[in-house]
Amino acid sequence: MILLLLFLLNLSFASAHINGFGEQPLSKISIHKTVVSLHINASLRASPSLLGIKGEDTEWVTVDLDYSNPSSDDWVGVFSPAKFNASSCPPNNDPKEQTPYTCSAPIKYKFVNETNPNYTKTGKSSLKFQLINQRADFSFALFSGGLSNPKLVAISNFISFANPKAPLYPRLAQGKSWDEMTVTWTSGYDINEAVPLVEWGLKGESLSKSPAGTLTFGRSSMCGSPARTVGWRDPGFIHTSFLKNLWPNSVYTYRLGHLLPNGKYIWSKSYSFKSSPYPGQNSLQRVIIFGDMGKAERDGSNEYSNYQPGSLNTTDQLIKDLDNIDIVFHIGDITYANGYLSQWDQFTAQVEPIASKVPYMIASGNHERDWPNSGSFYDKTDSGGECGVLAETMFYVPAENRAKFWYATDYGMFRFCIADTEHDWREGSEQYKFIEHCLATVDRQKQPWLIFAAHRVLGYSSDYYYALEGSFEEPMGRESLQKLWQKYKVDIGFYGHVHNYERSCPIYQNDCVNTEKSHYSGTVNGTIHVVVGGGGSHLSEFSQVNTSWSLYKDYDYGFVKMTAFNHSSLLFEYKKSSDGQVYDSFTVSRDYRDVLACVHDGCEPTTLAD
């Protein structure tokens, strides 16, 4: 009986851990239960009515509210498109079942009394929302009855951006070769309305134009609810252009464009990026890595459950230090949209200052991919029915097949092997062969810094759930891979999924293989494993078990910065998102011969022959 209770406790905790201990704020709204109860003495007025008249892609809107029968559970939802009714509901084949008033969740919401504590006495309040251009108009609706039994009391006037279809939110990513940069953006223009392109060139020199491909998807591409039901929103059109034959270490300017049939161009604002160094180039190279950031609202919307409290701090610290960053890796659990598609626009707007200037490389996590009977390794519902479609379409990665989210990318003296933990990685799998090929094909004389990264912890973690499993890892995590890390002498393995920070000693088969803690020199002998899942989502508890291999733990939000000064010197820094200060660090100093040196289970064969 005791064993059964322990098993059920473990199973319950595992489920909570996998689903992130949290609930997508929009999922709290039972929008399909909406009852129309329009009140003659209730009014909402939104201003200004026209946004983006100077080309802005985000604006603050004031909503003035007056209601004669206020209550503490009144809330205001933002809807886009502005007209929301039963037309958004999937076809109803059961004549006995009443069609809901609406089947579209709002894109954000606020409780009225959060802004004005006296609202329940006066019935008056003024709320401020920050809106981004999302290819459609907006309206604001006042509901009583709380989130679980919403009663529609009043609807505001409609407002919109001057050009809802404008090209927005560029996301840079490394191409399949070192001298290629990809630019992905979102617009409201289909290919039969306008031709997508990028105008670009070396800073200060003449510009050329490159075409872009266009992708989109429909509701039928979603695997389940809410992505297929109340969370569905038209994603617009996602364009990607491939800027090729770049000169290394050079500043390029670019802008997104659409050529209309009448010969007129619609342009975005201008941006710039610095092209990648040649593989092996000896120069200063700075890399940011974190996981599980998600998105948050600067106007306080949707924060009823404080779902992703560290997200904006992480974003703002990266923006603040952007001149000292060359490339960013966000290793899974990107938006936590969980099937509410509007949140992907919100996220791309949030990271635009970063992703428009440096490559923003992503990995696939459970909240992007997992859905039962969809081919994901884990038969869970964490993606909210997205089953990978949003991540694979909204962001470019240099994978051979973006539905299989593993890829290799080079940045100067670094080789990055990015795994996809939502597909099988075990020995004999297709992904295992990729991982070994990625690790085996790097020339360590030219690219000495070999990095492995994945979303779930395939290495080591003192997370409470992993401790209950008894393995301090994702089940079946390192059993197949540790011999590859050791054989090919991987320097650091990075993971998210667990929402905290932890660094291990250089380790192999559960044993520390180096007694140093902060200044490694010569042959390191094993791989250092780092959990860096504190990008923004609610934090994960550590186990009370003190593991011998854990050198530093932090129950806080943060990210890692690696700086390669040359082929022999690397600086690792963990920074808190709250202040950007360094709280953990180590250095590696070594020569090429130290990389070649024989280590346990990592020796090249030799012969006694002359």
Automatic annotation (TrEMBL):
E.C. code: 3.1.3.2
Domain Purple acid phosphatase Fn3-like: 45-163
Cellular component per GO, a single term: extracellular region
Residue ranges occupied by any Calcineurin-like phosphoesterase domain in the UniProt entry: 286-501
Boundaries of every Purple acid phosphatase C-terminal domain copy: 526-585
Primary location group: secreted
Gene3D superfamilies, sorted: 3.60.21.10, Purple acid phosphatase-like, N-terminal (2.60.40.380)
Required cofactor(s): Zn(2+); Fe cation
Molecular function GO labels: acid phosphatase activity; metal ion binding
Keywords: Glycoprotein, Hydrolase, Secreted, Signal, Zinc
Cell compartment(s), UniProt: Secreted
Reaction equations catalysed: a phosphate monoester + H2O = an alcohol + phosphate
Protein name stated in the entry: Purple acid phosphatase
Species of provenance: Acacia crassicarpa
